[in-house]
Write a structure and sequence with these properties.
Layout: H1 8-19, E1 34-38, E2 40-47, E3 50-57, E4 60-64, E5 69-87, E6 90-109, E7 116-133, E8 136-154, E9 159-164, E10 168-175, E11 183-188, E12 196-202
Antiparallel strand pairs: 1-4, 1-12, 2-3, 3-5, 4-5, 5-6, 6-7, 7-8, 8-9, 8-10, 9-12, 10-11
């Protein structure tokens, strides 16, 4: 499914940047800085009677342990609602999948004191997925690890926008019922269709 990325947060940041007066603080990051960031995406697709809606939220908080390296906490929530679709070769009138993940991350910024900087991020997460369908439900648990390159650009001394995309990831999950087998997924590559835009606020 092709996701329609909502960049409302980025648009708002441009408005805020133009509306605020420049203060004495410097753009870019330095040791001891704390930032919060997040991204939102929403996708909707309809083919005949088959419908799918997807909402994704990814908040995080980071701390500059030194001039280049950030450590932080991240969370993620994905809600998928499907109608008249197939799941495991079974036709379902309704299917809801809610995924939650929480974990930590580390980032390395190449030129953090500048207005523009590239970064690389390594993240690990615990994953929990609840699947509800016509006749029942089940839960899936697992973990994931991934590496993502990205870039950030400061609009004013406190607000930046960032873009990141997945380059390398490994995820293993297992349904919570007897006889279930784990599903292990490994991906490598740069899929430009999955670029995530986010808003960063530096304290």
């Amino acid at each position: 499914m092709k996701k329609l990325m909502l960049t409302a947060l980025a648009v708002v940041s441009f408005v805020v940047a133009n509306a605020q007066e420049t203060n004495n603080a410097s753009e870019g990051f330095s040791k001891g800085d704390i930032f919060i960031s997040g991204a939102v995406s929403y996708g909707s697709e309809k083919t005949g009677d088959t419908k799918e809606n997807t909402l994704t939220l990814t908040p995080r908080i980071g701390y500059f342990a030194n001039e280049n390296f950030v450590v932080g906490l991240r969370a993620g929530y994905i809600s998928q609602s499907l109608e008249n679709t197939f799941f495991e070769d079974v036709f379902l009138e309704e299917l809801d999948i809610n995924s939650f993940e929480i974990g930590g991350f580390g980032r390395y910024y190449t030129t953090p004191v500048n207005k523009f900087s590239f970064f690389g991020e390594l993240a690990v997460s615990y994953i929990s997925i609840d699947t509800d369908f016509d006749t029942g439900d089940f839960k899936t648990d697992g973990f994931g690890i991934g590496f993502s390159p990205g870039l950030s650009y400061f609009l004013n001394p406190n607000i930046a926008i960032e873009a990141a995309w997945g380059a390398l990831s490994y995820v293993t999950v297992e349904p919570d019922f007897d006889g279930a087998e784990s599903t292990d997924t490994f991906e490598i590559g740069l899929d430009l269709d999955d670029i995530t835009l986010g808003l960063v606020y530096k304290f």
